[in-house]
Fold these 2 entries.
Entry 1:
Amino acid sequence: DQKRKQRGSVSVFNEALHAEIKIEQKQCERLRTAIENGELSVFYQPIIDVNTNTVFTVEALLRWKCEDDYISPAVFIPLAERSGLMPEIGAWVLNRALIDLSHWSFGNEISMSVNVSVAQMLDDGFSKILDSALKSTQIAPTQLHLEITESVFAIDKKLIGERVSELVDRNVKISIDDFGTGYSSLSRLQSIPFDFIKIDRSFIQNRTEESDTIIRATILMAKEFGCKTIAEGIETAEQKAHVSALGADYLQGFYYAKPMDANNLISWYNENY
Ligand code: C2E
Ligand code: MG
Ligand code: MG
Ligand code: MG
């Protein structure tokens, strides 16, 4: 009887797994057609220089418009990573973002920040993709910031190290994204020649004495390394005042602007600067 019960639960488990795999395959198929049908687009969110109050850079943020809804990248990027579509999608984002920057009248005054996923960092075709995007748009490499989430540095040290040195050779800037939330260690990060640290918005939005201490320590560490800090998720005037007083160099958040499509970004820029 015990045996039969076990067998029963195994087959229930198998069925559940099978159903999950089917859903995953379906979602992958949807994503594949989304790419083909042009349902993906890139939005841009300004990052402001605290000292000059001007736009320092804009972050390119991927959007998937599905029927009349936007599906969050937090949902479909993990799917794209698992299904092997991410290198292709990432290359598309990089090209789109640099093409847009090259068209903007204020494009020379700002830089472009593009997120790079784990799959892209592990892909040995990445530097070729990077070279061709820079070449075809004539954007200076120093005008491109690649945002790499901290947790990427927790995986394969050798591979990631090789990729990082390719980026350094090309003179693009490196930002550590979501700093303080990943599973990386400071000893790992010490070998990464980063230019910017992005302080995760959780430290700004759930403010405690401890989170303030972490922000202060992060800013101090960045200064010692000769790097700049960007604080994410600034939604209120209080947060802005508070985080600038703690010494962050650049601020990003809904307080300044939400991510916008290219046309809205241009209007926003012209209205404000
Ligand atoms: P991230 O790189 O940390 O990007 C910042 C996220 O915070 C964006 O979410 C942005 O819309 C949101 N945000 C900005 N200011 C505020 C604020 O004041 N309050 C709140 N609550 N949120 C704010 P989004 O666009 O949904 O993107 C989520 C994540 O998806 C990104 O986090 C990034 O990890 C990933 N992602 C987005 N686009 C790409 C891409 O093209 N490639 C890769 N690899 N990842 C991407
Ligand atoms: Mg980012
Ligand atoms: Mg971030
Ligand atoms: Mg984040």
Entry 2:
Amino acid sequence: MAFEGLSERLQKVFSSLRGKGKLSEDDVRQVMREVRMALLEADVNFDVVKDFVKQVRERALGSEVMDSLTPSQQVIKIVDDELTKLMGTEAVPLNKAPHIPTIIMMVGLQGAGKTTTAGKLAKYLMANDKARPLFIAADVYRPAAIEQLKTVGQQVGAPVYEEGTDKDPVEIVKNGLAKAAEDKNDYVIIDTAGRLEIDEKLMDELTRIKELAHPNEILFVADSMTGQVAAKVAAGFDEQLDITGVVLTKLDGDTRGGAALSIRSVTGKPIKFIGQGEKLDQLDVFHPDRMANRILG
Ligand code: GDP
């Protein structure tokens, strides 16, 4: 289960506070040491943990806790608040173009869930915005990637523009956009190539696609199972492409929390959706407060 270890650790820390009438500064410091350990063990980025603990400690040592009759509940509330803040406070909607089509470019490492998420997003937009999306298959390095996108397209009932694997992906995107204009598609979802790690050639190609397509959204798809590495990779993509948002996938797995809690702070970009399964309807809008509640258990 996602966040299991972190939730258990935090619950244990807080239960040690219960029953205490008043908290001493030492109690607060002890609690914060344990919260810090729990976050580091959940693979949250070191600087993020440091700032988080500082913020919570300052508030916890203030009058809202020290003068409270229910200090342990106050501490839990502060941790809840600050976790919510760490993940962005509010849900952030998808950008929409003033004129059709809204262009969404999916980027990320291979296996992160780009193609699956492209399908989920189309299904979501078709259900919620009566969208008529067109997919563009711009991953020309793996023939299987195009086949996979075509399967996804069939499953959601949306067309896929593809030109096989022999063409420059920038050219394919250009032709795909012309097709979308002709067919008056209101959304275009571009599925791009991934690699096992960031490399210059991939970034060049993505930059060229971006410059041609002027996407309204560049969504970085992050595998939450990779912990804080996901945040580091996201920062690398952001530096090159100025991403507009993040989709965190595989939150149905036993991810520890490092990705969810680091990525917003490290990149400054909002998590917009979460993937919670392999099926195409397993995509949800990301709500920081709900995620904080889930982490706190
Ligand atoms: P891509 O290489 O980035 O396009 O990644 P794919 O879309 O092919 O996904 C890689 C694998 O992750 C596939 O087996 C997907 O079914 C799986 N996957 C994607 N999103 C999720 C998710 O939210 N939960 C789970 N459990 N699996 C996912």
